[in-house]
Design a protein that fits this description.
Layout (H helix, E strand, L loop, with lengths): L24 H16 L32 E3 L4 E3 L4 E2 L5 E2 L4 E5 L2 E6 L5 E9 L2 E8 L4 E7 L6 E6 L5 E3 L5 E5 L2 E6 L5 E9 L2 E8 L4 E7 L6 E6 L5 E3 L4 E2 L3 E3 L3 E3 L4 E2 L3 E3 L3 E3 L4 E2 L3 E3 L3 E3 L4 E2 L3 E3 L3 E3 L4 E2 L3 E3 L3 E3 L4 E2 L3 E3 L3 E3 L4 E2 L2 E2 L12 E2 L2 E2 L5 E5 L2 E5 L4 E15 L1 E3 L2 E3 L17 E8 L5 E5 L10 E5 L3 E14 L2
Parallel strand pairs: 19-22, 20-23, 21-24, 22-25, 23-26, 24-27, 25-28, 26-29, 27-30, 28-31, 29-32, 30-33, 31-34, 32-35, 33-36, 34-37
Antiparallel strand pairs: 1-2, 3-4, 5-6, 6-7, 7-8, 8-9, 9-10, 10-11, 12-13, 13-14, 14-15, 15-16, 16-17, 17-18, 37-38, 39-40, 41-42, 42-43, 43-49, 44-45, 45-48, 46-49, 47-48
Length: 490
């Protein structure tokens, strides 16, 4: 039939020319057959058709059964459309009853949960682990999870709606570059640890102990094996394990304790009880407004001022002025080479030296005698009693030893020339050794006014030597012997 790409035209001879004209039945039937054939045949697009017997085969969109707000999808590769389960609301909310997923090789990123109580975004997977973020609508908490599978992954950290970030299962927040690292360990455990870095074979950490409230600064070969070098308590007390060094002014608002190796080359100022133990050193000024205790080998190179009680123990040394306004005790070996000024009570024990001379008192006059190159450095007198007798030492090196022994029923019957002697006594030791052989004397007396004397063997630096009683008359007597030796202990 004759027609154009837009307008359908009837076959010739089928259009009446005048009203009531007769149309031949054959012509009319042929026209009707042509119309039926046109409608039953797939027409090209240019003739007003779809070019296909199905919607899928149509070269342009056609209406399909759909869901309100659903995203339109292509059906196959011919351009046909189909319905979708994913919707976009009028307010822009994207919803899906299943997962929105994108997969490339071993990695995946998709949102799980749909409109359920939890929404999950899978960030990726590495090796045998899946990493995801899950938001719990009920609690408002975001959980960071890791595990073998999405459904079995466990929470490693949480972020609350208030902004509190917490690690779980003693996990670490870690950042590593080369040999250095910074990370927070411990999670919700009793201790939280911040690794500050590593240098050579040492790791440096700061650890907060929730139980004691103390902050511990540690160093060691490993994070777990690091030992405490510096402690800061909740009350503000700072304690070092050893070798504190301050080149400027060190100020303690409360009590201060400095152990062996602590060194302050500037001013040390403390307002509370201050203790400097053996080996602590202040080469500048020491100013303490509270009580102070200073142990062996303390050295203060400048002025030491204590407005409270001051106690300097053996070996403590102040090369400048020591000024104390309270009860002041300087023990054996304490040394002040400058001016000692005490406005309160003072107790000064053995071997205290304060220029211009040596001072002894009841607290230091008796003790251990010592010397250095012939110069006395200890007590004025040293006395002791032991099983071998008694001894007394003097700072100049003199030593005296003595002993008294009583013997009963001694038989003095053995002829000794024109005299008689008894059995020899044992070789008795001195109660304290001498530096050289001392001068000795043994005197004996007997009952019955018999003439008694002693015969003595040679003396050594450690013993009197064996001796025997001698009498002019043979007999059995009770004997009392007195021993004395005088010499030098150095």
């Amino acid at each position: 039939m004759s027609r154009g790409p837009v307008v359908y035209t009837l076959p010739p001879g089928t259009t009446p020319q005048q009203p009531n004209d007769v149309i031949q039945s054959a012509v009319w039937n042929a026209a009707m057959d042509d119309i039926a054939n046109t409608f039953n045949t797939i027409q090209p697009v240019e003739y007003g058709g779809t070019g296909s017997a199905t919607t899928a085969g149509a070269p342009f969109p056609v209406k399909v059964t759909s869901t309100d707000n659903a995203i339109v999808r292509f059906d196959g590769t011919t351009g046909s459309q189909q319905n979708s389960l994913v919707t976009i609301s009028d307010t822009g909310l994207v919803s899906s009853p299943v997962d929105i997923q994108s997969t490339d090789g071993t990695d995946a990123a998709f949102l799980s949960g749909g409109n359920t109580g939890k929404a999950r975004a899978v960030l990726g997977q590495e090796g045998g682990s899946v990493y995801l973020v899950e938001y719990d609508r009920a609690t408002g908490i975001m959980n960071f999870k890791q595990g073998v599978g999405e459904g079995t992954a466990t929470s490693k950290a949480t972020l609350t709606s208030a902004g509190v970030f917490t690690t779980l299962n003693s996990g670490d927040i870690s950042s590593t570059d080369g040999t250095d690292a910074a990370k927070l360990s411990g999670g919700n455990s009793a201790k939280a640890r911040l690794v500050l870095g590593s240098e050579g074979a040492s790791v440096y950490t700061a650890e907060y102990d929730r139980g004691s409230g103390s902050l511990l600064f540690k160093q060691g070969a490993t994070e777990a094996g690091a030992t405490t070098k510096l402690t800061l308590t909740a009350a503000g007390s700072l304690t070092t394990a050893s070798n504190l060094a301050s080149t400027g002014t060190l100020t303690a608002g409360g009590a201060a304790t400095f152990s062996s190796g602590a060194a302050v080359t500037g001013t040390l100022s403390a307002s509370g009880l201050t203790t400097l133990s053996a080996g602590a050193n202040v080469t500048g000024t020491l100013a303490v407004t509270g009580a102070g205790s200073y142990s062996t080998n303390l050295s203060v190179g400048g002025t030491a001022t204590v407005t409270g009680a001051a106690s300097l123990n053996g070996g403590a040394a102040v090369t400048g002025t020591l000024s104390a306004s309270g009860l002041t005790t300087l023990s054996a070996g304490a040394n002040v080479t400058g001016t000692l000024a005490v406005t309160g009570a003072g107790t000064f024990t053995g071997n205290l030296t304060a220029l211009p001379g040596l001072m002894y008192g009841r607290g230091n006059i008796l003790g251990t005698v010592s010397q250095s190159a012939g110069v006395p450095t200890g007590a004025a007198f040293e006395y002791a009693l032991n099983g071998a007798g008694s001894y007394l030492r003097f700072p100049d090196g003199t030593q005296i030893c003595w002993l008294r022994v009583t013997f009963t029923s001694i038989a003095i019957t053995t002829a000794y020339g024109s005299l008689f002697q008894g059995g020899a006594d044992v070789n008795r030791n001195f109660p304290a050794a001498f530096a050289a052989i001392p001068s000795t004397e043994i005197s004996v007396t007997g009952n019955g006014n018999k003439l008694i004397m002693a015969r003595q063997n040679p003396t050594t630096t450690t013993a009197w030597g064996a001796w025997a009683p001698v009498a002019a008359v043979s007999g059995t007597v009770n004997v009392e012997a007195e021993f004395i030796a005088i010499g030098r202990w150095y």
